[in-house]
Amino acid sequence: PRPARPDAAANEKTEARNQTIAELASALREGVPDDPHARDDEQRARMLLAELLSYHRREDAATWWDYYRLAALDDDDGTDDREAIAGLELESTRSAKTSTILRLRFPPQELTLKVGDGVHVQNPRGAKEAARDFGKVVAIDRAAGWVELYAGPSKWSVGAAPPSMVFRHNFFKWEAKAVALQELARTLLGRAPVGDTARSWDAARSLLLRASPRLHDAAALRIEGEDALSQACRCVLQLDRSLLPVQGPPGTGKTHTGAEMILRACAEGLRVGVTAGSHAAIRNLLAIVIELGAPRGASPRLAHRTDDPTPEHGVTLLGDSKAAGVAWNARAYEVLGGTPFFWARSDLADSVDVLFVDEAGQLSLADTLAVCGAAKSVVLLGDPQQLQQPCKASHPGGAEVSALRHLLGDAQTIADDRGIFLGTTWRLPPRICALTSRLFYDDKLTGLPALEQRALLGATRFAGHGIWRVAVAHEGCSVRAPTEVEAIAAIVDELLGHGVQWRDADGVVAPLQARDILVVAPYNAQVDDLAERLRPLGVTKVGTVDRFQGQQAPVVIWSMTSSTADDAPRGLAFLYDGFRLNVATSRAKVACIVVGSPSVFDVDCRTAEDVRLVNRWCALAEYAREPGSEPG
To answer: What pLDDT, on a 0 to 100 scale, did the predictor assign at position 121?
Structure first.
């Protein structure tokens, strides 16, 4: 049985919340046919919302299940768990005001902890609580085997025993988002609250119903001959309490388009909110707004509700949510960024004319609906064909998907009458764009003609542009493939040590340098080995796909790592994930080089889903060129 949470012993608040959710879900399901095919759009929306009401509760339960599992690990088990770091030994300490930063060394192990993660340590057996908060990760080098932990004065003091193991535990308050979804349910049921904090939820209705954008005066969503940027900037001003999806494939300028839309909205006196699943994404979009607006003399007052004190040029940082809400409602700013935890607050009801949801292909449908109550209209920026938001729990009935995936369903691209598709890439040269477009975007993605100019030049087997496949024989490799590490080192040496140059779309030729190469692998263990091997060659951009979404480089090298599908520790669904394939190959401005065992493409598919997963990789293998060969 699950141990009781230290602070959640069936208290009245928890019971009342669960009862409220159950009653609302039951009311939403009332009168809806059991047969899904017999339901109309409104009934499908009600059934989906009934499942979404428990989304955050399910995620929270999964988080705590994981917490107690990790709190019960011994050091040996901790070494094998990617959520923990075991075998820690104190190397040094240094003061940080009243706190301490501990540098600890650890033996080789597969782990996923990253800077910013909170960590907990186990308490002695018999203690009231299984574990306690220790601090957070402020620096880590997996390849070198050290981590730095920030611990406050109440967590650790010099002279105390250092931890031998820590595990990740990031707990976020989710109640405001859950309450927002409950209010949305009441609105759909005709039980909407009244008063200053009542929300209209028009955009949320549109999202649930997958409705087409509604524009003032019945304006057309699409005008013949209008480019996508002009269309987006026109439509954002005409939104009539509605929702506008903007799908941006790799290199199509999604963030640029969003920033232009924000500037246009501000110029017309509209108040703009910005949200995303991470502060980094919010920070990036606000920075582009400033970058584009400054040369034109457009300087809207921007603020960012964040706990991170790192200065952001031209942006006021607001550290307190309540104070930020007061300032926003007092019209102190024209643009305000904040995560869904902030925008789900009831005191921000309908306070935004247009809310921009960045990376909406990664933000859960539940979180997106929760923030819709803050805005009259909502713009979704993103691409559901790239990486998805990971869920800890299992969710039924379509509740597990992102907002954009919900809108697209099984389709690869947004329909012309449902949103805007940015169909021209500024990054991918023709032989990469063609495959990307065919596999992921219904053959709708095209590149600028000038991208044909991009090429590697000189004494290399990878001259020109496109996708290459380098076969490296090995057996029994799972999360590490030493032969691939050496093969990639040889490729890097070939590209950097023999005067190879690269030509950009404008015809400018420059020497290929270490900073122009990005290396990707599916597993952290392989990433660590590659980073250590390539560091002497000057290549430092080495990581998993997740790290590099949104980035680009002239050359991308992808290490498949596992010898066969059976050697892949997380199964076909991870190694052959199509979204990861899309992100990895589409980082390349000139050349993508896939390095792997020939056997990794020889897969015994047992289900239709296996076939779907592997088909894209087989298409890649057939499309890719052998080193030194002429393009087909």
So the answer is: 94
Q: How far apart are CA 33 and CA 36, in angstroms?
A: 7
Here the CATH number for the domain that contains residue 119 is 2.40.30
Kindly state whether residues 413 and 540 are assigned to the same domain: no
Binning pLDDT at 50, 70 and 90, where does residue 196 land?
Answer: low
Phi and psi of 75, rounded to 5°?
-60, -35
- Domain span including residue 143: 73-168
**Is 4 part of any domain?**
no
Query: Distance (Å, rounded) from C-alpha 185 to C-alpha 190?
Result: 9
| Claim to verify: residue 453 and residue 411 sit in the same structural domain | no
Q: E-strand spans in 478-574?
A: 501-503, 509-511, 517-520, 542-543, 553-559
Residues 476 and 330 in one domain: no
Q: Of 226, 191, 186, 229, whose CA–CA distance to 46 is shortest?
A: 186
For residue 25, the 8-state DSSP code is: H
Reported pTM: 0.92
Residue linked to tokens 């032969």: 483
Task: Flag whether 317 is in a domain.
Answer: yes
pLDDT in tens, 135-144: 999 999 988 8
pLDDT at site 3: 44
* pLDDT-above-70 percentage for the chain: 97
Which of 168, 190, 212 represents a domain boundary (last residue)?
Answer: 168
